[in-house]
Amino acid sequence: RAKTPLAATGALPGKDKDKDRDKATGGGNRSQAPGKRTPPTPKAKARTSNGQRGLEAEIDAAEVALRAVEDALSDPSAWATPEVTARSTARHEAARQRVAELYSRWEAVAG
Question: Within a 13 Å sphere around the CA of 51, how many CA atoms are in the beta-carbon half?
């Protein structure tokens, strides 16, 4: 069995262990372009795709709901009294937050 250089084991001192390891081993995995991740397995890819599709459907529905709220808020009666204004503002903010939350989840799944 060939001896592994210390840099390849991460045993070199310093904060740039990955750089040192890559230098010692000739740049790491040559089958991938720099900065690329290992492709997911077919099962993991299917789970991610299904998760993304589900989130995309939720995002579409949330965006439709947000547009509906915004359309309703274009009616002057949505701003007729302070109480109605407060309810309208709360509905709009909740719809906007829902869309933002779903996009954040989608970005986490999409990587």
Answer: 15
Burial state string for 32-69 with b = 16 or more CB within 10 A and e = fewer than 16? eeeeeeeeeeeeeeeeeeeeeeebeebbeebeeebeeb
pLDDT tens string 60-77: 999 999 999 999 999 999
* Separation CA 47–CA 57 (nearest Å): 15
Looking up tokens 């000739």, which residue turns up?
A: 26
Q: What is the pLDDT of residues 17-31, one digit of tens each?
A: 454 445 554 554 444
Residue 84 CB contacts under 8 Å (≥ 6 apart), including other chains: 77, 78
**Which pTM was predicted?**
0.55
